[in-house]
Amino acid sequence: MASTKKDLTFKRVYVWELPVRIFHWANALCITVLAATGFVIANPPAIMSSTEASGQFWFGTVRYIHFATAYIFLGAMILRIYWAFVGNRYANWRSFLPLTQKALLNIRHVLQIDILLGVDKEHRLGNIAIGHNAVAGASYVVLFLLALVQVATGFGLYEPMSAFFVADLFSWVIPLFGSDFTVRFIHHAVTWLMILFVIIHVYLVFYHDWLEGRGEVSSMFSGYKFVLTDRIKPEDTLEGETPPAQEEEPWVEDEKTPAAEAH
Amino acid sequence: MKSIKNKRETYLQSVLKQGYSRRDFMKFATYMAAYMGLETSVVGQVARQLENTPRIPVIWEHYQECTCCSESFIRSDHPIVSDIILDKISLDYTLTLMAASGHQAEAAKHATMEKYHGEYILCVEGSVPLGDDGNYCCIAGRTAIDHLKEAAEGAAVIIAWGSCASNGCVQAAYPNPTEAVPIHKIIKNKPIVRVPGCPPIGEVMAGVIVHYVTFGTLPELDRLNRPKAFYAKRIHDSCYRRPYYDAGLFAESFDDENAKKGYCLYKVGCRGPMTYNSCGTIKWNNGVSFPIQSGHGCIGCSEDNFWDNGPFYERISSLNGFGIEASADQVGKATAAALGVGVTAHAIAANVAKRNELKNSIAEGTRNEKQVRED
Ligand code: HEM
Ligand code: SF4
Questions:
Q1: B365: chain A residues, CB-CB within 8 Å
Q2: Which stretches does the entry tag as region Disordered (chain A) (predicted)?
Q3: ipTM higher than the 0.90 cut
Q4: Are residues B70 and B121 in the same domain?
């Protein structure tokens, strides 16, 4: 059975629940706004102005936006942590960490096929992740850690200007690093690390969308991804019934497939 | 030379003996209460305490330092400050200012340490070098480490004057050839009040020490053991150029139009937003001015490691590890650009490597497109 003759059929699977999607876009927006306002704070344009200082407040406004967005960013983060315990399996905290043998194998697969661009000779159904793949999951852990650093250093710098208890929770940060200098430097440098993350993340999303054609990009709007029908248990086994033991059959392409010839 | 008296005189007695009037003394008490941030109603209490408390002996040590702390202290607003805190005549120990010198001076110090064991105030000016067994700083033939440990043992309170004793200052800056450390790295079993600054403001120094002699307790300290009354706020929070900052009006160089108008010095490297000190309120030279008022940004002299967080005229520290002096932004931009190139290359390579897969799926899609029913 040559793959060229076999039509692939897909089913829609609801992968990203609404809270996950809202979080994703809130997070993306916050990071964009925080990085943009942050760079303005770091290096404001010098404006020649005939207006007296009493007549304008633009730099204060930029900082205000940065701090207000920071609170939203923190709030979204807390809600997402909550959802990592109550959401579906693709939102669960376990899906981010390579805890199982399967996840470790998946990391190898992703590195070979997607990063080093090897050609997959044996199409195991399980190789293609339905949620995020194991490498992507790990990269979100990294992003989460970067976000934690930004929240800690950001609120640490903000704490002396605020009497609100949330900010006061971070009064330990500056003493920990010894001075505002270091904290500010870390805050600034980690902004760049986040930008690097965004570049890689956005590229890989397009990469998967283009090569797999399963609606990777639109899934973060609609929540659905397309999954091979073979991977979905038949309708009648859905509700609480034990499905017939079904080994995942490796789907080996014909020796004559063009993919094999490529080698 | 008088040796240490048996009956200790009170602060008031000491002041009167030095030729000040009671009126001077009352003024002094008022000044002090104000520096400490106390209410006017407490002035009486301060005066009464100074009237009745016997003078507390002070041992003032000098290690790796430039004496700017001492200079600042003896020039604090009110002359009584240094006159009554440091008994320069019978003196306990202040190498730079005391009448005695050499063996006499060391003998006076030891006498004080024995007689007032557990009572004296130990003030330390300067950092302590640990390198080469501490030999980079020796006084009377013994290392600073030795002196410090000995003097700290019987001290009631230890005050670290200035950035040297608090943070290490310039001696501890990279590459720190003498392995200079601030004193809290050596004395761990006693509270140390840190009064950073290069130098600290004289009135701040006086405020700290007078707080202890009047109330017998240390002033309230923050998490870095700095007195809150003087180090709770950043220069930026009390800077008179702050409205320009909020309005986004900045000088870009020291001689531009904006600098002449007195705009905020943030873009020429002002450390005010990162520096905790009282320069904006107490100011310097008896309240005449402070760096920002004189047209120069704050260099953050009271902050940990401020020498290595340069250059002073750039907002963000440079990264020395990158051979040439590079700022985080240059490194970030270069990395982002490299990554952009890498990602583009990967995209092209992916299309080449996966061309057969792509051909198949495009063929399949096209076949399906032909089959689309239009009814
Ligand atoms: C995605 C997260 C964030 C990014 C990318 C970001 C970025 C930046 C950047 C680039 C700066 C300029 C640093 C400099 O002075 O050189 C900055 C400043 C600052 N950020 Fe953030 N930030 C983030 C989150 C936060 C959070 C959560 C807070 C918490 C309140 C915060 C508070 C601050 C403060 C207080 C400053 C210093 C502003 C000032 O001194 O006027 N940031 N941020
Ligand atoms: S001159 Fe310095 S301390 Fe003053 S407002 Fe500007 S940045 Fe802040």
A1: 213
A2: 235-263
A3: no
A4: yes
